């Protein structure tokens, strides 16, 4: 909007108007699309009483939602495959929504089929891999067991003699072979069980079969891919021998419960070799098939990724267009759509041009009509900001959006906010550090604006120009305070003071005499390090805080006059602005005058005594505390004016509002006699809704009483609140001094390189962590409070609502 709009004016929001659009149905879609590109019209929902399913374009929104779901599915698949969708589509291909819908259905079906086939193949591959491991491990067990049995048999035969011994088996093999009923037939099951369940698996098997099983487990060295979950799991190969069908059934159920995968095993050695060979060959073939499938899937996802951003933008635009069309109402003939919306006055001609272009491009027989509606509804607030002013406007909007066309504090915040921050953060060394850090964001803003940043980084980047101004003002106030990491420099000439004697080495100002003109700019460096430094700077900063606070509060009250004058509210001028100015300046304006006169004359008068006895003893003689002739009489007049201004604020306004209401009510009663029937009905309708509302005098009076008490007490508390400028400035200065003297200088005094390096590291860490991060945040929050409470409550209503035009640019930000 930057180049197409009239010059920016932030003082008051843009003049707005309510317009009505009558658009033929055949050109409605294109019209709304062009208005979204323009981004200067905020539509009103004329179908608020209808549910989303009862609206005209519910089916189209459902279709767009389905396409958006498919695109989200594609994005998830690309992220899993390690692909990132192109930010800008490689080839821009014109495609309409219907074609895109068909294409997305085909792509989704193909991708789902590829995924399903890939999962089946992967599961088969994993099962074959597990089967191969089981064949190898169980084969090794059987081979080892057979070798041991053969060796044992030979040993027994070699040791056997004609005589019976205690070790001779009671049953000979021949006897057992001759009696089949005496043979023991053992069955076995083998497979893989997760390692973390193996101990429980063994325990349950033992208990379920009462120990009538023989179990062996072998750990698999590397994790294997589980066929069911597709994840890598550490497993053990198990082999369990059992006797009887009941035991077998129990073991099968336990295996199923523990997720143990069972695989068949042939005891025949030759058959084992053949099976392993077949499994290995199948694995090779499956691996080739899986790789080909993954390559095809990757190519498909890459093709989708190249066009993803274009498709996504198209779907989001279509969905936004139909959402907006649903806010329009169908005309009685069902041939036109009627819509209402707010737009800036300057945008009327642009909207007319857009409507004409849409009608022409859609070959509509009738063009769209735009007409201005007159309404008493409060329009939205719209400020045209740029990248510099937007952050300052956001600070104001965080408190409350300005009422339509009331004075905007954002204009003054651009200067006052960073300045009050700098009063608390005054150190030109720290200001330079803050400036350098901010310049990184400012100089790289084009690159960073297109990147995804973290929450805190994004917040800092958004307020980079606020921080830039804060840094510049901190350098300025730091030069005034003459502090560079708490160290003073003679930047603007030599000090105005010198030692009285050549051997003068006092740590105070006792031996100093003024030898030249006052130091050109800021605090004379000779004050730093003296015994009187703290009392001097305390007095200076405290008085500066009061002067700045009274000045800013006066600015707020003056802005309330401009608001009242703009809205033609004479009561607020005579019974709010004038008494408030009198009350504030009779007390604290007078205090500011005394501070300036005391500085100018170099008087030793006690301002605390003057202000206290202005109330306790207004007729008493000031004596040595008199700063100028006629001060006693002036104080009495100012005190009287302050007392008079309180009832002036409180009493007249409620009575005058009641009188105005009665006159308006009486005027409406007489006006009805001269109206026609139709207008009489309309007027009576509005009269019943507004004119016959009783004037709640009690509520108005109580409201005015609260407002008066709030201002009178607030004048005192708000002035005291500005003393935070002095307190935080003092805290910042003292912390900086402590880090410099007790860390850096202390480390320097040891004449040890290691201690010096450690001291420098601690000094840098403390400066960055405490002074450049925590103190910055603290001063920022205090400056924010001074603007929101002490300044803005003097004039700012902040009960408006923002202008949110239908714009595809804003739509992209919201979706993200």
UniProtKB/TrEMBL annotation:
Q: Where are the transmembrane segments?
A: 419-443, 464-481, 544-562, 582-601, 634-651, 753-774
Q: Which domain of life is it from?
A: Eukaryota
Q: Which InterPro entries has this protein been placed in? A: V-ATPase_116kDa_su, V-type_ATPase_116kDa_su_euka
Asked if the record carries the keyword Manganese, the reply is no
Q: What's a GO cellular component annotated to this UniProt protein?
A: vacuolar proton-transporting V-type ATPase, V0 domain
Gene Ontology biological process: vacuolar acidification
Where is this chain's protein located in or outside the cell?
Membrane
Coiled-coil blocks? 90-131
Q: Care to name a GO molecular-function term for this sequence?
A: ATPase binding
Keywords of the record: Coiled coil, Hydrogen ion transport, Ion transport, Membrane, Transmembrane, Transmembrane helix, Transport
Query: Which Pfam families does the annotation name?
Result: V_ATPase_I
The membrane topology of this protein is: Multi-pass membrane protein
Q: Does the keyword Cytoplasm apply?
A: no
| Task of the protein | Essential component of the vacuolar proton pump (V-ATPase), a multimeric enzyme that catalyzes the translocation of protons across the membranes. Required for assembly and activity of the V-ATPase.
Q: Which family does it belong to?
A: Belongs to the V-ATPase 116 kDa subunit family.
Name the UniProt record assigns to this protein: V-type proton ATPase subunit a
Species source reads Trapa natans
């Amino acid at each position: 909007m930057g180049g197409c709009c009239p010059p920016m004016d932030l003082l008051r929001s843009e003049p707005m108007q309510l317009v009505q659009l009558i658009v033929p149905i055949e050109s409605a879609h294109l019209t709304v699309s062009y208005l979204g590109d323009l981004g200067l019209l905020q539509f009103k929902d004329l179908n608020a009483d209808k549910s989303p399913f009862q609206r005209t374009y519910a089916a189209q929104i459902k279709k767009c939602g389905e396409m958006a779901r498919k695109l989200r599915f594609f994005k998830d698949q690309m992220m899993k495959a390690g692909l990132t969708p192109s930010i800008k589509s490689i080839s821009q291909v014109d495609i309409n929504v219907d074609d895109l819908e068909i294409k997305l259905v085909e792509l989704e079906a193909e991708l789902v089929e590829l995924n399903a086939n890939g999962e089946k193949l992967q599961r088969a591959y994993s099962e074959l891999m597990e089967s191969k491991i089981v064949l190898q491990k169980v084969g090794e067990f059987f081979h080892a067991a057979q070798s041991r049995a053969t060796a044992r048999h030979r040993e027994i035969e070699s040791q056997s003699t004609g005589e019976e011994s205690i070790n001779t088996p009671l049953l000979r093999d021949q006897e057992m072979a001759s009696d089949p009923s005496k043979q023991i037939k053992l069955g076995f099951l083998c497979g893989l069980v997760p390692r973390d369940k193996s101990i429980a698996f063994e325990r349950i098997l033992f208990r379920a079969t009462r120990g009538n099983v023989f179990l062996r487990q072998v750990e698999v060295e590397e994790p294997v891919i589980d066929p069911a979950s597709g994840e890598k799991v550490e497993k053990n190969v198990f082999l369990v021998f059992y006797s009887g069908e009941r035991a077998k059934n129990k073991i099968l159920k336990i295996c199923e419960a523990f997720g143990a995968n069972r695989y068949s095993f042939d005891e025949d050695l030759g058959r084992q070799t053949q099976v392993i060979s077949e499994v290995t060959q199948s694995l090779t073939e499956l691996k080739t098939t899986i790789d080909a499938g993954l390559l095809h899937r990757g190519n498909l996802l890459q093709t989708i990724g190249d066009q993803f951003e274009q498709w996504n933008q198209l779907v989001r635009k279509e969905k936004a267009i139909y959402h907006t069309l649903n806010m329009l109402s169908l005309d009685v003939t069902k041939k036109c759509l009627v819509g209402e919306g707010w737009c800036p006055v300057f945008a009327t001609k642009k909207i007319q041009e857009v409507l004409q272009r849409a009608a022409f491009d859609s070959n509509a027989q009738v063009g769209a009509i735009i007409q201005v509606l007159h309404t008493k509804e409060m329009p939205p607030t719209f400020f045209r900001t740029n990248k510099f002013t937007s952050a300052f406007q956001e600070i104001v909007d965080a408190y409350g959006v300005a009422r339509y066309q009331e004075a905007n504090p954002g204009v003054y915040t651009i200067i006052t906010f960073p300045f009050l921050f700098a009063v608390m953060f005054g150190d030109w060394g720290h200001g330079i550090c803050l400036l350098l850090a901010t310049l990184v964001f400012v100089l790289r803003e084009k690159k960073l604006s297109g990147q995804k940043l973290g929450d805190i980084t994004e917040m800092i980047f958004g307020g980079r120009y606020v921080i830039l101004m804060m840094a510049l003002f901190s350098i300025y106030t730091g030069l005034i305070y003459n502090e560079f990491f708490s160290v003073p420099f003679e930047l603007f000439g030599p000090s105005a003071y010198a030692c009285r004697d050549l051997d003068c080495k006092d740590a105070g100002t006792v031996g100093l005499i003024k030898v030249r003109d006052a130091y050109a700019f800021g605090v004379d460096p000779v004050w730093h390090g003296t015994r009187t430094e703290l009392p001097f700077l305390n007095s200076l900063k405290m008085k500066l805080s009061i002067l700045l606070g009274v000045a800013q509060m006066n600015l707020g009250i003056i802005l309330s006059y401009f608001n009242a004058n703009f809205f033609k509210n004479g009561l607020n001028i005579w019974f709010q602005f004038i008494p408030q100015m009198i009350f504030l300046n009779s007390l604290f304006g007078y205090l500011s005058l005394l501070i300036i006169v005391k500085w100018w004359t170099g008087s030793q008068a006690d301002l605390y005594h003057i202000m206290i006895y202005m109330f306790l003893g207004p007729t008493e003689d000031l004596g040595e505390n008199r700063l100028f002739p006629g001060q006693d009489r002036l104080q009495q007049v100012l005190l009287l004016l302050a007392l008079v201004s309180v009832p002036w604020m409180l009493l007249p306004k409620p009575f005058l509002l009641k009188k105005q209401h009665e006159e308006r009510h009486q005027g409406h009663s007489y006006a009805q006699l001269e109206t026609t029937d139709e207008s009489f009905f309309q007027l009576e309708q509005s009269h019943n809704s507004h004119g016959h509302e009783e004037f709640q005098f009690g509520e108005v009076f109580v409201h005015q009483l609260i407002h008066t008490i709030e201002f009178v007490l607030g004048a005192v508390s708000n002035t005291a609140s500005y003393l935070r400028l002095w307190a935080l400035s003092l805290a910042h200065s003292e912390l900086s001094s402590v880090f410099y003297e007790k860390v850096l200088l202390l480390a320097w005094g040891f004449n040890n390189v290691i201690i010096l390096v450690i001291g420098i590291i601690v000094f840098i860490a403390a400066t960055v962590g405490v002074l450049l991060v925590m103190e910055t945040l603290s001063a920022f929050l205090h400056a924010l409070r001074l603007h929101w409470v002490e300044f803005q409550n003097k004039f700012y209503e902040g009960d408006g609502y923002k202008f949110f035009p239908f714009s595809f640019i804003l739509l992209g930000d919201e979706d993200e």
